[in-house]
């Protein structure tokens, strides 16, 4: 096949050893394009190319690296239309989401890391007193005399970073890894999700056009697990940044552990939304309702597990049902569509099986869960499951679809205990008119982030999870820390 997408390895566009496979539009079930199937050997070659490029790139002035990222941001913004069209076709996201939250966020992240930040900071000097106060260890190395020992902490690049990205956002997710990694002087190998890799190759084209040297950015895709595995186990790789399921993250962590490779893991979530009696119900319903609409619930930060205090429980269930029932499910290209398809027929079947499981467990399916009367596409109507308990599988396992479960509670302590009774701890939410209580509860929640009366994000705030929701933090300056090692330089005063 001559019209398929080629791999990007060592600055060259390379024919894949494994041929090509179709990328399917989940809204129409038509073929969007043909993605390359790399071999494990080609993944290894990409890692080797990144290793070869690392020395020169890591020594490049930060301002020069920033200029490459800035140019990439402008190229992405300039091609917003075709890039968003492709993202929508690959993922099934609505046109507005594809433009603003996928391609738009990616451009913003490249622009964000085009700002040079200090990579070193002073450490308070250590004063060494002469005489009895000086340790035997200091005396042994000739430091027994009075004096000052100065120190500097320096952020150094980790090396070669393998970035394994998620299917729900093939622009913002890889940009959030690649941009800070490159800003710090690392080189990268990107293994995109097999469902929608074509957008990631467009990102590589933008970086190439922006002047990224050969080997600094490499992209290899494939459906076979051995491609990603090769990009993790390669001796040329120093760090793995992964976004995806906890099951896969555990496997990657095991492999990284053998060679002490650095890790950044953004894994699953089952976000608890604790809604108190005094909450603004309109705000709570709109925030929780994003689970139905935003990426059709295919997002780890969604408030999928609603814990409603008894005094507001019935009204909240009623209003959520009305909200879900009013959302238009359909073609993401149409301006009034709110809920698009899920990524594949297999995933649709998985989401539907969870709704049926909820019924069997004793939950009430208040609304949704059925297939809308559409001829094509992998659609699921937003589903609301009430009368749930926290031990139900639908309340404990990540469904990754437009499904919300609602669980009642009586007092604050019970709500907090239920929220924390989870394997996950990515982002939780609190809705309350009592700001003091909201902050008090937020501090008690075992989650990497807590939204108070909002599902909004501050894009400079650290992002990551407790428990099985991940390891490490990124976003803003925290991403620069994530993609760097800290080196201490010490000298006598």
Strand order of the largest sheet: 14-15-16-13-12-18-19
Described by the principal axes of the CA atoms, the overall outline is globular
Supply the helix-strand structural class: alpha/beta
Low-confidence stretches: none
CATH architecture of the largest domain: 3-Layer(aba) Sandwich
- The tally of strands reads 22
Helix content, binned percent: 25-40%
* Number of spatially distinct domains: 2
* Average of per-residue pLDDT values: 95
| CATH C-level label of the largest domain | Alpha Beta
- For the record, what is the CATH homologous superfamily label of the largest domain? Aldehyde Dehydrogenase, Chain A, domain 1
Compute the separation of the termini in Å: 66 Å
Number of helices: 17
Biggest sheet statistics: 7 strands, mixed
Report the β-strand fraction as a percent range. 15-25%
CATH topology annotation of the largest domain: Aldehyde Dehydrogenase, Chain A, domain 1
Radius of gyration, rounded?
Answer: 24 Å
Domain Aldehyde dehydrogenase: 13-489
GO molecular function, one term: oxidoreductase activity, acting on the aldehyde or oxo group of donors, NAD or NADP as acceptor
Protein name: Aldehyde dehydrogenase
Keywords: Oxidoreductase
